[in-house]
Amino acid sequence: MAPSTANGQEPPVKSERTHTEGRPGQLTGDGRPDAATETFVAHRNLLFTVAYEMLGSAADAEDVLQEAWLRWSDVDLGRVRDRRAYLVRITTRQALTRLRTLGRRKESYVGTWLPEPLLTAPDVAEDVELADSVSMAMLLVMETLTPSERAVFVLREVFAFAYEEIAEAIGKSPAAVRQLAHRARSHVTARRPRGTASPAEVRKALDAFGRAVETGDLQGLLDILAPDAVLMGDGGGIRPVVPRPVVGADKVARLLIGGLGRTTAPSFRPAQVNAWPALVLQLDGALDTVMAVRVDHGLITGLYAVRNPEKLSRMQEETALRR
Fold first, then answer.
1. pLDDT for residue 195
2. Quick check: 140 and 306 in contact, CB under 8 A?
3. Above 90 in pLDDT, residue 4?
4. Residue 285, pLDDT score
């Protein structure tokens, strides 16, 4: 991010650490973690949030943080002016590399690919801009950006880094970053939710949706779905889901009522997923599906059902997200 040395280049790798700092991940003489470890741990939630917003995958974000740590642990901290910015720069570069790899994996993914849902604490929702940026709907919008556009959008619009800092992170000129930011902002604005819904409005829509599905109330479900509602499902080829997006309130409602009507005692419980109210479907007491929604003007316009068990591990405990 911001230049870390006088000439703007990355600090050189250390030949060895001083006895007061210790080895990476080890304790110093007074029993405290070394400086590199302390700094990384202090910013870890921020770095995970950056990586997750760029990738939409918690598993890949964790891999990016591992790579970032390996590079950070060899940096001469004495020549780093802004440790937070430097860590974000390392993380961004690793995330860009992983994003391009992830793009190739998605091409061979079985069915629709959806972001990995995260169980989040209530305090994440209190940061309105952060909550909006990690919502399932926004992450899907960001999927339509190029890797560079996505990196610029996340760093600029969510984390408010300067163009010059972003240029350092993605290896482009500030002028190029400004152009990328303009394109990304225009693209996202054209595709983001049409009418901003509050968490209370989303919760109200989810309550009506859950009641209608659990009781088989077709008309009640049609009343809460927008005419152009879209249902998307991600089973990863492991669990059955709709093979492609289902469009239209009538088709979506009949599919949900018919499909869940054949299951054994479907039960929805509320959850805070990606900082927004969502529903968790339990079948026979076991986690089966995470259902996130997009709400516009009080009606559900998007339903995102994640059933791939490999994407449900982050629903066991809350994930901390920070700016």
1. 66
2. no
3. no
4. 78
Q: State phi, psi for 7 to the nearest 5 degrees.
A: -95, 5
Cα separation of 199 and 208, whole Å?
Answer: 14
SS3 for 302? strand
Inter-helix orientation angle 163-170/174-191, to 10°? 100
DSSP conformational letter for 236: T
Q: What's the pLDDT band for 214 if we cut at 50, 70, 90?
A: confident
HSE-CB at 175 with a 13 A cutoff on CA atoms is 0
Angle formed at CA 14 by CA 161 and CA 87, multiple of 5 degrees: 20
Question: What pLDDT was estimated at residue 150?
Answer: 97
Q: Is the dihedral of CA 241, 244, 245, 249 positive or negative?
A: negative
Helix (H) or strand (E) holding 87: helix 83-107
Describe the crossing of helices 83-107 and 35-55 by its angle, rounded to 10 degrees.
Answer: 40
- Here the tokens at position 194 are 């049409």
CA distances from 268 to 2, 220, 308 (A): 46, 16, 17
Residue 265 has phi, psi (to 5 degrees) of: 45, 65
Q: Which of 45, 57, 154 is nearest to 99 (CA)?
A: 57
CA distances for 6 relative to 3, 24, 72, 85, angstroms = 7, 25, 19, 15
Edge-to-edge, what's the strand order for the sheet holding 246-247?
Answer: 246-247, 225-234, 299-306, 286-296, 276-283, 267-273
Please state the φ and ψ torsions of residue 228, each to the nearest 5 degrees. Answer: -100, 25
Interval 271-283 mean pLDDT? 94
* pLDDT confidence of residue 7: 38
- Which residues are bridge partners to 232 per DSSP? 304
- Within 10 Å of residue 286's Cβ, how many Cβ atoms? 7
